[in-house]
Amino acid sequence: MPAAHQTPYWRLSGFYFFYFASLGAIVPFWNLYLKALSYSATQTGVFIAILMITRVVAPNVWGWIADHTGRRMAIVRTGCLLAAVIYAGILLNQSYWWMVAVMSLFSFFWNAALPQFEATTLSHLGEESHRYSAIRLWGSIGFVLAVVGLGYAFEVISILHLPLFILGLLSGIWIMSLTVPEQAASHLHIEHESISSVLRKPHVVGLLAASFCMQVSHGPYYAIYSRYMESYDYSVSAIGWLWALGVIAEIGIFMIMHHLFKRYSLRGLMLFSLAMAAVRWLLIAVFPVHLGIMLFAQLLHAVTFGVFHATAIRLVHQLFRGRHQGKGQALYSSLSFGAGGAVGSLYSGLAWDHIGRPAVFVISVLFSLLGMFLTWRYVKLDFR
Predict the structure, then answer these.
(1) Which domain holds residue 99?
(2) Is residue 2 part of a domain?
(3) Is 314 inside a domain boundary?
(4) pLDDT tens digits, residue range 259-313?
(5) What is the pTM of this model?
(6) Which of 54, 171, 224, 229 lies in disulfide reach of 107, CB 3.0 to 4.6 Å?
């Protein structure tokens, strides 16, 4: 890594640690918490989709403000604080419409933070952007510790205590955001071309469309994977370890991504990631009772998330220059994790209730293959 006076490695890493630890508390266990409150699979899909839908709007609103003010960290801090305060409303009432309102407001501010922090991290790294993965891996470590620790905790205590753990982690995100100085978020003032010109390029459209498809395919994984595995008699702690295994594999790939970037084109890495996603979802659909196969499927998370995300972030950084950095990261986040995740979450709940459990992941296979085609057809430039 660059010297400490150039890049505040541990402060940036600490933010990722708490942010993804909170994600590690929400993603695997939120659907089990909702099940304990007697919500259906369809209602669960709606709650997860809320988190994703606000990710379509929020990053673009905050990204535009950040690119025009240069005050990225002020936005990050404000978003983190308001997210924690609003989420506390879950402790007051668990009725359906109250929770819909709280989760909508909470996720609007929570989703404002990460894309701007990504831009902040990349502005720190400058020409060393290939080292992004060495900082981002601490987010994966936080995720692992959260899913494993809470998996064991909920074997002993009721999962109805989940909101307390999430609130504590949200507070940690806000505290870490205070340690990153505002000047760390400075942005370039040079605009090479208009944002509309950038968005008309076929390889930019192809990248964003393929990212959308990849996250649609991951939607059922984030929305109902825990409930899916529980339906095949996996314990809560076992499910926690399956989640952890995927992210441990992700950590491993993040540690060597800078070597992969030197050896392979970004286009090639994206194509490989999408192909492995199709394989992964097919295995989960067909062989859920075979533990060994499920372990292998989770190891593929290193490729389907780790390689794809690191590659996409690098491509966005190269394609959206100057004052468009924030907009680029916001568009990637909103169209992939936001719109793509929302579509995946919604169809997974509906498919579960109407056409059966395995069909949910078969649909994911189709979206992975569509994303692979879009990458092959449109992302023609072999960036490195």
Answers:
(1) 9-378
(2) no
(3) yes
(4) 898 899 999 999 999 999 999 999 999 999 999 999 999 999 999 999 999 999 8
(5) 0.75
(6) 54
